[in-house]
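for the record, two folds in this file. i put them one after another cuz i was lazy. first one right below, seq on top, structure tokens after. the second one comes after a little note so u can tell where it starts
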Amino acid sequence: MSGETWRVAPEEPFLQALFKRELGISDITARLLVNRGVWSLREAAEFLTGEVAALPSPLFLKDIDKAVARIVQAVERHERILVYGDYDADGVTATALLFLTLEKLGVRPACHLPSREEGYGLKSAMLRQAREEGVGLLITVDCGINACEEAALCREFGIDLIVTDHHQPGPQLPEAVAVVNPKQADCPYPYKDLAGVGVAYKLATALLAGTGSDVTDLLDLVAIGTVADVVPLTGENRVLVRAGLERINVAPRPGVGALLQSAGAERTVTGRSISMFLAPRINAAGRVGNPHAALELLLSGEDDAAEKAAQLVSLNQERQRLEALMLAEALAMLDGQPAELEKKVIVMAGEGWLPGLTGLVANRLLDRYKRPVFVVALNGEKGRGSGRGTPGFDVYKALRHAAPFLLEYGGHTGAGGFSIDRDAVMGLKGALEDYALRDEPPEPTSFEFDADVGLADISPELVTELDLLEPHGCGNPAPRLVSYGLEVEDARPVGQNGNHLKLRLRQGGFRIDAIGFGLAGDGPPPRVLDVAFRPIINEMTGRVELKIDDFRVPVRDRSAGMERAGSWKRLLKKNLFYINQLTDLYLPEEITIKQKDKPAQGSAREMLVDLREHPDRWAVLRRIILKKSAAVVVSTPAVAFEVASRVRLAFPEKAHRVAVFHSGVLEERRTLGELAAAGEVDVLVTTPALAGRFAEEKDVVVFDLMHTWQQWEWLGSCGGRSLTLLYGRRDREAARQRLYALAPPRRVLLGFYQYLQRHAGHKRTTVLLPEAIGVLRSCGVPGAGRKAVENVLRVLSELEILEYTPVAGGFNVRVQAAKEKRFLPSAPTFRQQYAFKREMLSCQQHFLTTPAEVLKDYFRCGIISRGGTDGTL
């Protein structure tokens, strides 16, 4: 049993209620989404059902247009092209992907993957060889972002260079035809955590656009490289990996299928399959052999795939043997140097160690000692090493701090690599320890859980819902739940060695079986337990059971958090009540602007701060809130809940001082005023339903595009010391997509009607809400929710081609035969929706594009300030 502290992640009731209502999911699944940094309904829908087709265009990547133009030119001129990759799984898959892409364009490029001895990144010796071989264009994948000297050498040799990479750029970029890396400070691409193979895929997508060539057949390579490189499985990475896994399971390429079979992988390939079976064997080629063996496997056909897979399996077995020897030697060294274990950072250097195994051994030592580890393989006068960090310890920044002692380095937050002179190892130790003491990482939280649940909440439906959170990995861990005070009705050891624990647990009237692998211990467990687990379906019985991670004797006091005052409790309850009503949360509210609310003629705010289209408006908002209290104005209640929740999560110490106001809490306006007057409100997130005027000393932030001219008119009269415009085109697009769900076009209405005809014919039947939402999404409405289904049914009902009534969990529907041809404008709901959509898009376009000098007069502001691009004001 664990003696560590257990902690359950705090709830965020607004977002959980919003996700539960709009997506038709359980409160537990909604809570897990929030815990994974999903803070808006759009992000939640993308997390659960995101499609590759909806991903951002690759043209948002800085320089990608230049890269495409130069590659197309090289293809047309029949120039010799060299793809220069890396020796790990990310670099190998990226190289294979770009090779296959150029083959689709009619070119067979040369490929180079450096050995571990040769070292990471571009090398002058290889560039000289490329010149001799007549290479005219060199394209890097998964490397090159800091290769400034090598880029200069390429220019000297007459070789054009295109860099594609995902590692952190240094203070200077290489001079190249194009540098494609979303982590560049001025790159507008919205997702920054792509793996090297992900960046290569975006280049492939741009290259093959309009050619008729299929790019989705490369997604399996993207999935393998992304999971293997342990980048966050969030956002775009999650969509790409999920699509890649689907492709592997349906039609694996010969080399991948052969490697899975020879490694004894599970029948259904998951992210875990890549981590356990594919990535180690692909990486083994670069660690103890030649990385080209892995590239050849990925490019192999049916005839030689099995042979090449067997070669990688053999290399991986050799890697395991050498790794065990190297780890044993490192542990023996630490046993003989106990003072090293008292330091914040462990730095080990060994003679004759394999450079390809330093990262693996660093990982093993990190797991054992729970602190950052750097391992150096010394060979002659030089050494190559790898670092691995704990949460809060940035490996790349640590290496940058130790740069005076390094020959070269690179990496990211969690891992990095470097080369070093033998004589500089002691200096490296001192520099890393100095960095750790300056920026001491927080103690890792042991056993942090997503939610505490009762056995009554666990069902097959919940397990099915939790499967939607796959694939799991970095940034998206498998769900971890906890249940308190479970009675043990039966406990017995099972398994060949009796080291697993089989339990029968009870809570109230609910019973469930559980299995704890490796948890049998020396004796029976206590009769009452707190249990950490994940619910699963037992493949043998088909019933739900618990897969136990840990258990402990119950603790008495589990209370946490701050008690709210009575007024705050009433506001919270009223907001949650409002979310759960049928009122549409995404449409603007009716507001009344009274003459007395308008400022006196001639009065003006001190300043209009124009930060429209700011690249990181959340950073700006955080700075504003840190400096002062703020009124944050948004267009609708749903956006208010999302913004308020994100502010609460960003400032947990102020969570109980963030107030939300909208038309559903008009009766609480006086209570809110009293709390504000007492200094209890630090951040007010409000829709224009507040009406009235803010105090003259209040700074007002317009965080979201308003929907109607009436809302903009209120903004012009809402008072406050300053007005910061912090919205952008992304808000207009979000509003447009939401309106697309609330006011679907003809083809969506027709598709849904045809589904009902197939499903029910002319008989009355019940259509469950989740199923109806799924149909709308399949018709091309990714943001569909309950309101979208209701609107479609209402329009079809007004056209007199169906009847419907709401029932528990869905709608009772009967399709009617149309007596005559129907026209959509004859449905009042459709007419109203269309008119509103036209008004909204018109006024939003006006306030997006009108110059600040003109808006100054509209908003009755004085000085105009455009603010700083870094979010300063």
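(here's the note) second protein begins now
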Amino acid sequence: MSESFFAKSAAVLEWDRVIDTLAGLARSAMGAERCRALVLETEVESATARMRETTEMAALSEEGDPFPSVSFADVRGALLRAAKGAGLEPVDLRDISVALGIGADVTAFLSRRQDRVPALCEAAARLEPIGELRQLKVAIDRAVDAEGNIRESATPDLRRLSQHAHDLKQRMRDRLAVILESRRYAEVLQERYFAQREGRYVVPIKAEMRGRIPGIVHDVSASGATVFLEPRELVELNNSIKVAELEVDREVRRILRELSTAVAEQEPGIERVLDVLADFDCLAAKAALSRLVKGKPVSLNDDGRIDLRRARHPLLVLSREHVVPNDLQLDETLRALVISGPNTGGKTVTLKTVGLFALMVRAGLHVSCAPDSEMAVFPDIFADIGDPQDLARDLSSFSAHMTQMIGLLRHAGDSAAESGGTPKTLVLLDELVTSTDPTEGAALAEALLVELTRQNLKVVVTTHYNALKLLAQTTPGFANASLEFDVSTLSPTYRLIMGVPGGSSAIEIAGRLGLDDDILEHALKLIKREDRLLEQVLEDLQEKQRRLHQDEETIAGLKSEAEESAREAREIADRLRASEREEKKGMKRKLTEDLLRARAEVQAILEELKRDRTLIKAKEAKRQLAEVDARVSARVGPAMETVPVEQLDAGGRVEIGGLGTTGVLLEAAKGKRRVRVRVGDREISVAVSQLLGLSPGEGEPHRVHRASVPSRSAIELPARLETDEALIVDLRGKTAEDALDETIKALDRAATGGLPWIRLIHGHGTGRLKTTLRDYLKSSPYVARFRPGDKTEGGDGVTIVELR
């Protein structure tokens, strides 16, 4: 597309306002210049690369890790003078050094963040460290201070010459102090001070007294009453000072010539640094603009697909607190979108939003929409918005519009063959074919729109013509959209509705603005019946769409509330489960103690039956067992449904008494004293007397059941373990709490297995473990007595426990 076409389109889209805002955010003149000369990419890959740079720059600021400030002076003029052999001033050299320092800072900053900002690192590739540039900066900094003055320490000669000049000036000040205090000068001095004229020290003498002091007059005051005289006695010292200053100045000029020559030799490298810094300043401005317009990076494509979510005009976002967001979709199958609706409803704003987005993504700028949006890259953009009449060329509005359309069609014909079936040109038309007879205008507009789409252009057009609305509703590749109008308030909502044409609502708006009712009634009568019915249908459609939108918002709100309630319910359930687990853990220990005491009582009853197997003793034992069972039932609650372990086959679930854990039988228990049981991924051998059969579905791990206590009918003596040896429990290295748990389990196993005593190995250590265990053994219902081991048994590091 010709430059004139693009310039006109950019002007009506207010692209210059976006560029001005961007340039105003730059920190350097070169950065602002780069912003005003933004390159608009024409390929998806390059446009995506530019946007990725902006995204990485914006992310650094959002993460609290801002990019170094790229504020530097434009020293290209100084570089040009140096290249031509001219000497540079200290300020020029200082500015060059600052730019080189910023380049080094940028390189160091990015080198530490290569994984996070690969696109920025690629953009900084031209800033690779160059030894000569580092040496040049060091040389400049050695000679020039931060204020742009030559340092007296720049060279040994300059230091010596400067010190000599300072000494001479101090001698001059001492001589002047004597003169100002002497009687000889008391009458002739206008005031007691000295000054400098033309680099020489002078004193103020009354004009009428100048003949009394021999010397050289260098100046006269404005009133003529004072002459500034260099006394003859100071002439030689003034001459010496002048010579010393000339020598200092000569050395300074020599230093500046050397540094200027060094700058000229490195001019290409310095230019490259300035160029990269200007790019980064422009990138920083893009990131800042993204924050201001609430911009987001979007996906780009070259298929002509536009899918904008919650899009807002960026300039409106800059100037207003609230801007109505809109969704707009044109997929690959759509060639034209016809937007209708009331005047002042936002149709033109929608056109400009799409046009600005098309320009911004090509420049790598973030756009004001949701991040899941998508935008096509259009190498050509044409916008005909507003009134282009040209009185100088004697063109009316209609003629000016037609002239532009004719030019567009010619260009479209040239580029259609190159597009390969994919739209490469975005056309934005505001009120196509107006300022003429409505009937002819509608027909011409329809013919033009059809031709534009045939030429493979992507068209977004606003209109009041019903013919175009009907065309969009009935023709493949076309779609309607409308700006909502609230009939209840007779005001636009600025919300875009896809798929639905809109009425103009001109009469309603005129009434709202205060037009006389009689005029409005007359206008209604003049409208054709068909047009009036169509307007009514469109109004009804918009009203239904508005209510649907309100319902959707309500549903979305309710859904959000439901999701929040569900989340809170999950949190409450998690807390309850955690609380239940803690409660079960506390109850387990207490219930275990109760069960152990009950088992000890049962064991005592059984032992007594062993000694005296009489009917009377059996009945007494039965009564005592019933009492134990009743107490446990009252304490523990309803027992889990259990079955005799002898009734279970292989695969049945069992609980291992005393351990509070469950397992799976690997063999039938009937007729056996010991069986194999799988617990987790391990296989162990357990006495049948220690097993409790569980009904299907029962058997939570680590749960103690009341049924673990022998029932009243279970008066048989428990089988002994296969060995008569004592149960040895090694508790060394365990905490007191863990050792106590192990001891309780050991006592339970020994009691149910019929062992007479157990041996606890706890060692000596600090004595805390031994004390804890023996304190418990004093109150244990299992224990008859206990004692320390003798020398052969391990001494006091062992406790021998005799069971009841």
